[in-house]
């Protein structure tokens, strides 16, 4: 079969390529570092309830693992109030409610909050166990941290956000 | 009078005059491919990055920084490597390794330069594959490869992009060529060299590093060639055959291990290649409103919203985000039935084959001197849909004569079938055909040869090897037909 590429200079070409390659590697630090954008692995936003932006009433702290899902102000027959939804991990609904109520009790705000929970229909060995709804008095933003503008921290989503799912 | 060396043009003319007609056609097609790629590059040059390209570029930058650190005898920035290279464990880093030399020389390379670099590398890979195909199978298959996918404008546009799909497809063809050459040698000498095994493993791992979806292909080809080698080798040489494949396996596993270990350590979960499959399956076959055990957050897409949810739970519990993602996926898929799955597979398959030119629209540069989209639409559709017929032909055909043709058809069936696993496990899109495309070019040439030789007076091949290759073809055809019938029936129920 005829060679479409000449074979003789191939060895020379490889040798030149290796020398040029090594030289470039050696001088590469002089050109400066490449700036990684991190766009495909963003820093994980903080937890909205402990970030100080919109804390729980009385500064109550929940002592079981949870993930904040949404935090919104809703209007119903009893007026405006705050509705916080979270998913709790590792504990069942009854225990999560008991622990949340104890936390509000300790913070002295138990009479102003409502706590309810619904276990997901999942096997017992699941990490994510259910959804808790906290019915709370309205809270204003309590921190100037720019993170409080981040919807993925506060989870105070507005209906105009695109649902790209 | 002394004769000096002939001038360059004279040498070029002599080279051209020495070429046979088929070779001149090949050179002409090669020039056409280069011209098309130049044209398409200008039409995509300053386009923006699309989706996963952000990952490949970032990881390429991080790799170049590692080299800088090593040259200056500093420890590498592990935090940067974790975030930019392993990231969320969604992608294999092969394309980033390819991009690293560019960032080594030009750390701030803008998108047009990255696209030019990608175009040069992908063109060299395409031409190298064509030459390898020519050496292995002859002029006609090499020419077929230059036409399809070489002359497909959208395929050329992918050449300027940084996803690994098309490159993985070309390396898969290199692996296929090597497998055929190796088996021919086994047939001739009735034994195998460990070097052949080493090279087979090398091609396999390079393909997987470029795109993890070719892992099924790699396993299929290794399986078929292993059995065929055993049948071809002399009884006393079989242990050597086994050893050859052990070498292939050691090379493959040895080169995959650094990645698997790094990804497993960073993500705190066992990772072999990538970990995107749970979320992919949830999004593809599950209830979209239950992926985050309910709806995911508004304001970001179907990949980043579930990712954030899994990372948030991982932070709250101290577990791995991969473990949470598995759980989310299982929950979203709890109501999947055979019929819902079959319907989703049909939808995916439609997506796999519809709009083959879609990415030309995404990749185009809106201020280019001309719009490549009309060219891409016409050129891509005109070549792509006939290639779908080739796909059907490759799956349906059974070659009964000639070791080479039988072997090639078995390997192409394995290739096409394993790459078509994609719509069964993954949301399909108009990017995945580029992995299979070069195999369809080879398939077109093979079908043409089978058609040309149909009346030849060559007896059917006999013996164990021929029987095995025929059986393999029949089984693979039956698997393809069976999958179509089962999925089709279930989807209609």
TrEMBL record, chain A:
UniProt-recorded name of the protein: Uncharacterized protein
Origin species: Nocardioides marinquilinus
TrEMBL record, chain B:
Record flagged with keyword Membrane: yes
Phylogenetic placement of the source organism: Bacteria, Bacillati, Actinomycetota, Actinomycetes, Propionibacteriales
Transmembrane feature ranges: 83-106, 112-131, 143-161, 167-183, 192-210, 216-234, 241-261, 382-398, 410-427, 433-451, 471-492
Protein name as it appears in the record: Glycosyltransferase RgtA/B/C/D-like domain-containing protein
UniProt source species: Nocardioides marinquilinus
Key word Cell cycle present: no
Keyword annotations: Membrane, Transmembrane, Transmembrane helix
């Amino acid at each position: 079969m005829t060679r479409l590429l000449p074979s003789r200079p191939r060895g020379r070409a490889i040798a030149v390529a290796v020398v040029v390659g090594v030289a470039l590697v050696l001088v590469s630090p002089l050109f400066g570092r490449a700036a990684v954008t991190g766009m495909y692995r963003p820093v994980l936003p903080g937890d909205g309830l402990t970030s100080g932006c919109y804390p729980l009433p009385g500064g109550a702290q929940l002592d079981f693992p949870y993930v904040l899902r949404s935090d919104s102000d809703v209007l119903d027959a009893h007026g405006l109030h705050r509705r916080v939804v979270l998913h709790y991990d590792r504990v069942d609904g009854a225990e999560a409610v008991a622990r949340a109520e104890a936390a509000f009790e300790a913070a002295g705000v138990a009479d102003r909050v409502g706590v309810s929970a619904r276990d997901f229909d999942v096997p017992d060995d699941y990490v994510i166990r259910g959804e808790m709804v906290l019915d709370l008095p309205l809270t204003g933003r309590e921190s100037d941290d720019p993170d409080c503008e981040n919807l993925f921290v506060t989870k105070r989503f507005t209906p105009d956000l695109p649902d790209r799912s | 009078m002394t004769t000096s060396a002939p001038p360059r043009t004279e040498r070029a003319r002599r080279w051209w005059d020495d070429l046979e007609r088929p070779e001149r056609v090949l050179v002409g097609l090669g020039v056409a491919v280069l011209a098309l790629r130049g044209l398409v590059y200008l039409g995509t040059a300053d386009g923006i990055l699309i989706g996963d390209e952000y990952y490949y570029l970032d990881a390429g930058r991080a790799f170049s920084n590692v080299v800088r650190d090593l040259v200056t005898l500093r420890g590498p920035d592990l935090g940067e490597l974790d975030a930019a290279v392993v990231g969320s464990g969604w992608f294999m880093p092969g394309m980033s390794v390819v991009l690293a030399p560019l960032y080594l020389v030009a750390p701030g390379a803008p998108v047009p330069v990255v696209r030019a670099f990608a175009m040069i590398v992908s063109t060299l890979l395409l031409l190298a594959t064509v030459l390898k195909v020519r050496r292995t199978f002859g002029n006609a298959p090499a020419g077929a490869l230059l036409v399809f996918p070489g002359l497909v404008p959208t395929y050329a546009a992918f050449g300027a992009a940084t996803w690994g799909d098309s490159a993985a497809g070309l390396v898969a063809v290199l692996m296929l060529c090597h497998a055929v050459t190796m088996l021919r040698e086994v047939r001739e000498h009735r034994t195998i060299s460990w070097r052949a095994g080493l090279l087979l493993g090398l091609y396999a791992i390079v393909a997987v590093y470029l795109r993890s979806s070719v892992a099924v292909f790699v396993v299929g080809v290794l399986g078929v060639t292993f059995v065929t080698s055993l049948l071809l080798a002399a009884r006393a040489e079989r242990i050597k055959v086994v050893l050859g494949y052990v070498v292939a396996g050691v090379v493959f596993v040895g080169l995959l291990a650094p990645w698997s270990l790094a990804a497993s350590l960073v993500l705190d979960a066992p990772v072999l290649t990538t970990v995107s499959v749970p979320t992919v399956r949830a999004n593809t076959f599950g209830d979209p409103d239950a992926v985050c055990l309910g709806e995911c957050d508004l304001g970001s897409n179907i990949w980043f919203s579930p990712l954030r949810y899994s990372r948030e739970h991982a932070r709250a519990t101290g577990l791995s985000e991969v473990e949470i993602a598995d759980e989310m996926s299982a929950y979203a898929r709890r109501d999947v039935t055979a019929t819902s799955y079959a319907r989703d597979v049909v939808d995916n398959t439609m997506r796999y084959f519809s709009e083959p030119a879609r990415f030309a629209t995404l990749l185009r540069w809106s201020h280019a001197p001309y719009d490549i989209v009309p060219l891409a639409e016409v050129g891509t559709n005109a070549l792509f849909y006939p290639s779908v017929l080739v796909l059907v032909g490759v799956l349906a055909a059974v070659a009964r004569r000639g070791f080479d043709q039988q072997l090639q058809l078995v390997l192409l069936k394995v290739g096409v079938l394993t790459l078509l696993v994609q719509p069964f496990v993954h949301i399909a899109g108009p990017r995945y055909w580029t992995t299979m495309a070069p195999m369809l070019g080879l398939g077109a040439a093979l079908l043409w040869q089978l058609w040309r030789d149909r009346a030849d007076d060559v007896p059917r091949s006999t013996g164990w090897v021929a029987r095995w290759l025929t059986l393999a073809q029949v089984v693979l055809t039956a698997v393809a037909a069976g999958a179509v019938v089962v999925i089709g029936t279930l989807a209609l129920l």
